[in-house]
Design brief:
Largest sheet: 6 strands, antiparallel
Structural class: alpha+beta
Strand content: 15-25%
Helix content: 40-55%
Number of strands: 8
């Protein structure tokens, strides 16, 4: 190996070693400045005004922001504060543009943070998108209409980004509930299928029949929800 090739390979190896560290540091610095900057500069200015000397404490805004978030989280457990929050939300509902933005953000955040409002309660295995191919999904609706005899259910098939995916309307007989919690399913999706065990092929402790099916299409067509 020539000296030039050795230097080039060493340089690339060093670059590959340092680049992830640099990217990580850069992202953390951006997040730190975004969180600490707006509030930290004001607090430092206030301390400088009160003390009459130059004050610059890095991270002060980040600490105060964390304390505020913890304080609000503690207050949300109190009935009185919940009532105030409801009044604020009612006020937001009267503002057209703000109402749309708030409701959209709330629909994204609440289902994945409030277990009481979690829309997904079951993990299922479905022969989808074609016979012989099985996909893990989350039941979004057990009854698509108010008719108790309606056999259709809505299953959400997320990607490893979780918030990206698509809902599909299926016949309930085509959906098999497996012995897996929603939390375990989320780990399965995020890990791109790496994390998982024999729960993928078990229902209430029994092995599932997931042998390759004939290539004929089922009478009940799979319909993507609009």
């Amino acid at each position: 190996m020539s000296v030039t090739s050795s230097i080039r390979q060493s340089f690339l190896a060093g670059l590959l070693a340092l680049l992830p560290l640099y990217i990580t540091w850069k992202i953390l610095a951006i997040v730190f400045n975004l969180v600490d900057g707006p509030l930290g500069s004001r607090i430092n200015a206030l301390l400088q005004y009160l003390t009459g000397s130059t004050v610059d404490i890095p991270g002060l805004g980040l600490l105060v922001t964390g304390a505020i978030v913890l304080g609000i989280g503690w207050l949300t457990r109190m009935v009185f504060f919940k009532r105030i929050l409801e009044l604020v939300e009612n006020g937001i509902e009267r503002v057209p543009i703000v109402r749309s933005l708030y409701n959209a953000s709330r629909q994204i955040v609440v289902p994945f943070t409030d277990k009481a409002k979690l829309p997904f309660s079951e993990v299922v295995l479905v022969e989808y998108p074609m016979p012989g191919r099985h996909t893990i999904g989350l039941v979004a609706k057990r009854h698509i209409t108010n008719d108790p005899d309606d056999p259709r259910v809505v299953v959400f098939f997320p990607s490893n980004h979780l918030h990206l995916g698509y809902p599909v309307v299926l016949h309930k007989d085509d959906v098999t509930t497996i012995d897996m919690s929603v939390e375990e399913a989320v780990k399965f999706f995020v890990s791109c299928g790496v994390i998982g065990d024999d729960k993928l092929i078990r229902s209430a402790g029994a092995l599932l029949d997931i042998a390759p099916a004939p290539t004929t299409v089922r009478p009940r067509a799979l319909t993507q929800a609009s």
